[in-house]
Amino acid sequence: MPYIVALTGGIGSGKTTIANNFAKFGVPIVDADVIARQVVEPNTPAFDAIRSHFGKEIISLDGTLNRGLLRDIIFSNTNEKKWLNTLLHPLIQQETQKQLYQDNYPYVLWVVPLLIENNISHLADRVLVVDVTPEEQIQRTIKRDNISLEQVKNILNAQVSREKRLSYADDVITNHTKDTSIQDKVANLHNKYLTLAKIKP
Ligand code: ATP
User: Closest ligand 1 atom, CA of 33?
Assistant: First the structure.
């Protein structure tokens, strides 16, 4: 059973950037966002169930799920949100377990943006939080996603606060815009996790 390190952080904090640095050492990465997309790929049972439930309008012209529309629907309708969560939660959990346990590497990096919000930090052996200021998150997300200040602020407000996230951290990696030592910090954490994985009971 591999040692599981959960990597979390707010929008635009740099989770993907940090995970890519771990991957350079050969660490297997399991990405919660990728899994959330995989379970609703065309012709999966969840895709078919969602189409039957919401009608064909929920399918984009390219035949994939219109995730934006789905997000809008569940944002304003608690019952639909519950219905969708009941459908997807077990599938996501099953696929996550499958991916977390399929590698022979001593530990796995599980990148999960909503670790705290979804109350699943107990599934990891250790929690690594990427920490930046809200100002940096806002600036990076606007630049990357070309969205308005108001949209970014709404997303930030829907996530846990910086303080609450940090209270769950076993380790913290800062990723400030002026930081030049990410690779060194990741190397130190990587060595620490190899050691911890060895002594896991
Ligand atoms: P999300 O949760 O929104 O997917 P994320 O936490 O995975 O985001 P990244 O995609 O890694 O964050 O980074 C967000 C943006 O900030 C990217 O455009 C990335 O290139 C940039 N970025 C990451 N780290 C830094 C840094 N140290 N300095 C400046 N820009 C950075």
Answer: 4
- Name the closest-CA residue to atom 31, ligand 1: 177
Which of 53-62, 67-76, 128-137, 189-198 is least confident?
67-76
**Ligand 1 cavity residues, CB under 6 Å:** 9, 11-17, 113, 140, 144, 175, 177, 179
Centre of ligand 1 from the C-alpha of residue 77, in Å: 31
Residue with tokens 């990597």: 7
DSSP string, 141-160: HHHHH---HHHHHHHHHHSP
Q: Label residue 145 left, alpha or beta by phi (over 0 means left) and psi (-120 to 50 means alpha).
A: alpha
Nearest ligand 1 atom to the CA of 111 is 7
Name the closest-CA residue to atom 30, ligand 1. Answer: 177
Tell me how many helices (H) and strands (E) the chain has. Answer: 9, 5
Please give the Cα distance from 13 to 27 (Å, whole number).
20
Tell me if residue 99 falls in helix, strand or coil.
Answer: helix
pLDDT tens digit sequence for 97-140: 999 998 789 999 999 999 999 999 999 999 999 999 999 999 99
Does residue 108 contact residue 28 with C-beta atoms inside 8 Å?
yes
Distance of CA 183 to the CA centre of its chain: 21
Q: In a mutational test of the pocket of ligand 1, which residue from 17, 130, 139 has the highest number of ligand atoms less than 8 Å from its CB?
A: 17
